Amino acid sequence: MLIDSHAHLEMKEFDSDREDVIKRAGEVGVAFIVTVGTNLALSRKAVALAQKYENIYATIGIHPHDAAKTDNKTFESLKELAQKQKVVAYGEIGLDFFRNISSQDKQIEIFGLQLELARELNLPVIIHDREAHQQALKMVKASGVRRGVFHCFSGDYVMAKQCIDLGFYISIPGVVTYEKAKTIQDVAGHVPLSSLLLETDAPYLTPVPHRGKRNEPSYIINTAKKVAEIKKILWEEVAQITTDNTMNLFGIEASRGN
Length: 258
Ligand SMILES: [Zn+2]
What we know:
Layout: E1 2-7, H1 18-27, E2 30-36, H2 40-52, E3 56-60, H3 72-81, E4 87-96, H4 104-121, E5 125-130, H5 133-143, E6 148-151, H6 157-165, E7 168-172, H7 182-190, E8 196-198, H8 220-231, H9 235-250
Parallel strand pairs: 1-2, 2-3, 3-4, 4-5, 5-6, 6-7, 7-8
Helix pairs in contact: 2-3, 8-9
The structure holds zinc ion.
């Protein structure tokens, strides 16, 4: 059994064959998919998918790229949305100082507000951090939030250790299958399995051997196998422990489809 802890099934890239994508994931043993909102409209779509499909859970939040487009009304709507069934986390939220689609000041302001909101809603957080490691860690520390995941982890092992010490999980994307991705391979090798989650971040970051195509949750198995190869253990063990970790973080119970 596997879980894709982070996908974007609500995005338009899946509009033509979403049903098939979800079916294929089930066929390779992906028991649950967490589909992650990145703005208000897509968060609504993510929640609607979770209502429709038993094996899908949703998260809500404003991605740093969309920080400049938010106002108080956005947050009022997200608060309401958080009350819906099967909303299991707040995010993805954070800082992207690589692309800087919103200004860094605005990103910092909106990230701070959303860390507070997640705390108020008592939801774990999904952190997006690109080229902003120190600032992201500093803000998470100051916020008092101690439950969540650094998604699509891009730091080194020293940073991973700091995140784990704060109570966070490290999520390994398909990037780990790329030959040149030595830093994330090192992180996957050294971080104990008890602190790891797996994700596709579909439609992005497609693992080998599908690289070049659109990513989808069924490809998570390639990431599980690569982590197992690095750790020199069975991939089934990687699948089981990361599944347990994801269910634990997001409060998903296998027997109840809620
Ligand atoms: Zn994402």
